[in-house]
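Sample intake sheet
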Amino acid sequence: MIYADYFDKFKCKCGDCRHVCCGGWGITVSDEEYFRLLGLDCPAELRYILDCALAPVDDPSPERYAMMKPSYEGKCRLLGEDGLCSLQVACGEGVLPAVCRTYPRAVSEEHAACSASCEKTVELLMRKEPLSFSSPLPEPLSSYVNAVQNRSEPLNERLKKLVENEFGRGLYYNHYGLLTMYADALAEAFPHFEETFYRRLTARAEDLYENIERFDRDFPDAPSWLENLLVNRMFITGFPGSDKKTAVCGLVCEYALLRAFTSYCKTETEFADTAAELYRFIGHTYFDKNSAAAIKLCGADSADGLSALLRY
């Protein structure tokens, strides 16, 4: 197994987390976990919360049998006012459902890393040093990662070379125009994207470009942060997989969204929060396939089209 260099350094922020992982997501448990929690010996107050929190899904399977019903605030009912899990506090980590014990860790037989949908992961990747690994990466992932980490030229220029190797020529697009068309397609298909990010693109193009210029002045190390975020997901997904064009298109769109939406940030904390929220969308949907479909809908599935997203 190959480890990302920060993997062993990850430690949950627990009550200090600004955006808890059990907020805004549907948390599902297996049939074994469901019945185990129903019969769990625990304090009476916790027993009442558990009985109210768990409910079988409409179409249950052994792996996805029941769901934690969120509170009116959209958070897990087991989340205490101190930001800690009341189930873990009362009964220990061992009784937690698997998803709660392992998130944001992304572990397989081949790799061990953490999802950037967690703010702590983003904070670990916000550094000048490039992301490294415990062992040499397999091909072709290694070649792609080396290309993205080649700091002899700007990050957007490195990505343009990947695009040129996979796509033919096509029509040229304006950066802001293509970005908004692409975002329109995503917003129409994904309410979460519309609610959290889409409205930020309603401003004038000049506002976006001014924000990018200010952001670059304020955060000179940000290109390294973006590089590390991209490489982290490449590692987790085993880039490029079976479809190089779709993977490269997704990588370009990932960069474009990160660049556009983090440009509004004025503090490192805002950057971490924005990136983590964006990866809640990127890392937990079929992002590459959805982006490829959206870009094709825009008529920009070409080297010239995708390069427009890499202008900045």
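Comment: The mean pLDDT is 92. The chain is about 50% helix and 5% strand.
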